[in-house]
Amino acid sequence: MRQEITTEVAGMRARIAVIVAGLMALTALEAWAAREPMDLLTALKQGKIQATFYGNGDESVRGRIRSNPYGPDQIYVPPGTQFWAQQPGRQGMTTLGYVPIDLSRQPMVYVEIPTACTNLDLVAPTGYDIMVPTACPDARMAALCNEIGRLGPRRQVAQLAVWAIANDPPWENVEDYAMSYCKGTEEQKAAEALRLRDRAALLLGYAGLDADEFAMFR
Q: Which of 135, 136, 131 lies closest to 53, judged by CA?
C-alpha cells in the first residue's frame, strides 16, 4: 500500500512539474512576444494596448497609449493608417511615414502622429474630436505616405499629393491653399504654387503613381 501511495505521489509531482514548466514556457513566450514590435491596429484588436486619439488641426493627431500586461514594448503606426473623426463635418487624417512608439519606459505614453488631411472640403478636427484609427483604405495612399516618410518633402507638397489621391480636386480648388504658403507678389505666389504642384507630381511618381491620372496635374 505504501508503495502504491508513493508511486501516486510521484506521479502527481510529475504532472505538477509539467504544468509548472508549461506555465513558465508560456510566460517566457509572452515576454518574448512583448519585445516584438506590433502594428497599432493589431495591438488594439488583440487587446494588447489601450489607446485614445484626438484631433490636432490639419497636420497631426495626438493620442495616449497604455500597454496592457504582456503587451508589446514597441508598436508602430504604418504609413497611410487612417484616422477618422467621429464628429460629422471634420476631416479624416492619413499617417505620414512610419511612426515608431516606445512603450517600454513608462506605463502611458503621449504621442503626436504626423498626418495630412484626406477631406479637402471639411474643417480640421480639434482636440475635442475623437479620432478612430483604421487600416489605410487605398494602397496608393499607403505607398505615397511611405515615400513622404522616406523623403521628407515640404508639408504643402505632401498635402497636395495626399489630396490628389483622396479627393482628386482640380488645381483651381487647391491653388489658394498652395499660394497661402508662398511669398511675393500675386504673380510670384502663383508661380511658386505651381512649383509646389510640380513637386507633388514628382512625389507621386516616386510612389509609383502616374500624376497625369489626377485632375490636379492635368
A: 131
